[in-house]
């Protein structure tokens, strides 16, 4: 839980709306960026991205 006063929280919502994002998405991106930078300075391997391959359908023949 994060405690932020009502006035700051409201203004943060306005700022995010102007930037076309949500408060939750903005905080998530901020946290990911900070953790990625920390991992890099600590020499920790970056988390591997999960790749999901979707099989392509063969085109239907006429």
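-> sequence recovered:
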């Amino acid at each position: 839980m994060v405690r932020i006063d009502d006035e700051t929280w409201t203004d943060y919502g306005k700022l995010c709306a102007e930037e076309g994002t949500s408060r939750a998405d903005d905080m998530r991106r901020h946290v990911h960026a900070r953790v990625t930078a920390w991992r890099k300075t600590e020499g920790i391997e970056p988390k591997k991205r999960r790749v999901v391959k979707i099989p392509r359908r063969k085109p239907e023949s006429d």
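The two ends are 59 Å apart (CA to CA).
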